[in-house]
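Hi U.,

Before I forget, here's the chain from the pilot set. I'm dumping it here mostly so it's searchable later in email.
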Amino acid sequence: MALIQPKAQSFLKERMGVNVQKEGLSGWFMVFEPTERLHLGAEAEVWKGTWFGRPAVRKQRRPRSWRHPNLDHRLGVRRMISEARLLIRTRKAGLSVPCVWDLDYDGGQLILEHLDGRPLIELLNDDETTALHAESVLRKVGAAVRALHRVATTHGDLSSNNILIDGEDVHLIDFGLASVEYDVERFGIDLHVLDEILGASHPQWEGAIDWVVAGYMAAEEAFGPAPVLQGGAVPTAREVHTRLEDIRTRVRYHG
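Structure:
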């Protein structure tokens, strides 16, 4: 089996404070072994496979031919590092997101834990899904989004493809557009993206966003006020909901 000696070691150990030696791993990293391509997008190619025998996902950055190669590489590395940092940050906060296992700067590869679960898009488009089950799931989705927002993080691409339902658990994946935010507008946009997706891809579930918002608001009541973080105070669930309604009004007016 081929081996590589990537510079990801310095990223994981020095920048992120993750010491791979504690896992009983050597300074060498095994090559990811792909088994199935999950997605081919403009920015990245996503494969399912194994890493050290464990189920994993590889995000392989795709070069943009219209950009200068050096600039394209720098931008790609910056986005990978940002995604890895946010995943580690949110996972440490207790959210159900993939664990970061490896990062190869030169190869443009990010190796993540593979999480079980059924994409929300499949569940909502399944003819056997009842209204009661859909409501229950979407309320859990709303709670998961609020948990993410409470740590001053917006997802940036809350589509039904990027939400996995695993029994009672909700996993959020693909943090390529995520960012640390404190502006209520960004949180409102996060919910509005999901609102638009639900309306366009799942019109049979009329008022689906209302179930999401109900779960979002209920999570605030259960968790209490969001803590004041280093960058400031996170907007309350009520403030985000109000901004969502404002954004929806603006979109209808300008549409």
